[in-house]
Design goal:
The complex is a heterodimer of chains A (460) and B (246). Chain A is α/β, with parallel strands linked by helices. Helices cover 36% and strands 21% of the residues of chain A. In chain A, helix 4 crosses helix 11 and helix 4 (64-77) crosses helix 12. Chain B has one domain: Class I glutamine amidotransferase (GATase) domain (Rossmann fold). In chain B, strands 2-1-3-4-12-11 form a 6-stranded mixed β-sheet. The longest helix of chain B has 21 residues, at 65-85. Classes of the chains: A alpha/beta (460), B alpha/beta (246).
Chain lengths: 460, 246
Amino acid sequence: MSKPFILQTILAAAVCKTVRRALRLRGSGGTALPGKAAMTVCKDILAVTSRGMEIIVVTGTNGKTTTCRMLEHALTSSGRECLSNKSGANLLSGVTAEITCNTDWLGRPKTHYAVIECDEGALKQVVPLIRPKVIVVTNLFRDQLDRYGEVMHTLDAIRTGIAKVPESILCLNADCSLTASLADDVPNKVVFYGMNTPVGDQKDVEISDAKYCIRCGREYRYHYHTYAHLGSFYCPNCGYKRQDPSVAVNRILGITTEGSKIEMQLDGKIHPVRVGLPAVYNLYNAAAAICAYRVFGLPEEEILGSIADVRSSFGRMENFTLGDVRIQMILVKNPAGCNQALEYVSGIGSDYNVVLCLNDRTADGHDISWIWDADFEKITQDPHARSILVSGDRAEDMQLRLKYAGAEESRITLEKDNARLLQIMKESTLPVFILPNYTSMLALRKVLSEATGGEAFWKG
Amino acid sequence: MQVKICHLYPEVLNLYGDRGNILCMRRRLEWRGIECTVDSLRIGDRKPLSDYDLFFVGGGQDFEQEVLLEDLRAGNGEEIKAAIADGRTFLCICGGYQMMGHYYETHEGVRCDFLGAIDLHTIGGEKRLIDNYAFRLSEESGAGTVVGFENHSGRTYLGSGVDPLGKVLRGNGNNGEDGTEGVHYKNVFGTYSHGPVLPKNPGLCDWILRSALERKYGTAQLAPLDDGFETAAHESVLQKVMNGEI
């Protein structure tokens, strides 16, 4: 390293840390600004401050954060120090801040391992700088369409990113025809994970994000479905089909609000596994994490054991106790994830109250039309769903969606003020499920944490 | 009374919550005691469209467009044109709206022939026009306001003598140049508005329903509904759009 460059690195790292410290003194999470500041001093500072680290990157529409949490938990509970961008800041500036703040005064990384969640659109900027050993792509669904355009554009963006790091090993969801198609276009080594078992009623999904073969345009057929467009797909025309995964959920033995019991198949060998988070989509996250951990070169027993007591990450199946009221918060950002959350809540089988929060800020996407593609009928037609609260900047839109989903107007309460919302929840005699989108989750989580003595989000 | 709705190509034209429009039309008919059936025409299906009173065409992904155009050329295109000429009601959103025109020319100059049922055409632009927007309907419909979400790279230009659906209040509309939004031709209602457009704009929904009932029964009286939630959602977005907040 040349002298001016070393000085630049030292300065950039110092700026990054100072800005973060200043922001935190003011009580702000400060997740992106420190990175931006460091990048103005040295544009590619991230390449320097991540040098020598072994890194797993997780991208894809849904499940990024939870998959990262599972990986990080496996690393730390087996005694390995590991850095992770827990705050959810997953654009170039956020990743830069996270890694650059974790360096010594010369800008050298303090930890060897990192698990990095990366936004699909930012992948092409981030991975060439950090050169990850493993990249996980969880799935592709319609999400925040006003930011990306269409699903195919997102897929192109991911492909562009992967092409820049041909040495990275890919872990791809075998059951997602969009994600799995990445294997054909890149020179990288690919390992698949998936589910070898059908889930749900096997009815054809009305809205599919991948109805037609990505190669030839013919309608896919399925040996079985898991959820949304995921499952054992095949094209009757050109032969494009799901690849047998080397890591797979072989059988689901039971799912409760506490977690799931499953059989996991690793290269043909069956292992009984407990996953400490409920809902089917977390089984995909578990398979993704186990797959990545193995190809990363670490002993699989570590993650097979640690995944039983993985803690939820903020807002994702996160539990709070407010007075006597049990509250579970489930982040929902798009129809596929929302449907899974609604399926889970309406499958509980005992009475509950539900809070639906909808914001339309930049991080959420200004377009909230996706609520019409999600099956809120699952809640409005569930007799166990007693009262429904709506909140957030677009509460009126959510309220209207529920009316057309068949809810009597008297069952719905609109409350935009979070303090009053908290009071209503406190008075609940039933468990409460909160389904917020991103920025409404951050705001609600803050009031809930304060009321229940929880931690600030950047401390996780 | 009965209204038979046909959803055209729901398996490909289903972006951005547009299916909410069907739900909205169905409920607003049923709440008034008018029977409503919803059927669909999928790629490869062949059936007489004269069985239906109202057609819904949504927006779709570019990737799937070619499959659709092939099916239109194979016969359904002529059926659709005949239904329009016959005065049947169509609600066409975004890609479905563009499809009614003569052609779409991409930004790179590649031309794709469409139905040519209405004298309009679309030119692909470099920048996508994305965000909440608002427009005012024509006088004949009572000049109500409509709020929605536009997300399109195509710029649509209406032929002379073809009426827009409304005039843009905030946002881009058809092309971001001439202040027009959508098209109203015979009983075809075309708009760029996703959202879905109808639930938050019950006046527009009822206008569309009335057109189908009038054609079928000669007269259409729609009983007023309690639109409290609809109005609240409309007003909250309209206020934000007009204040430039979103």
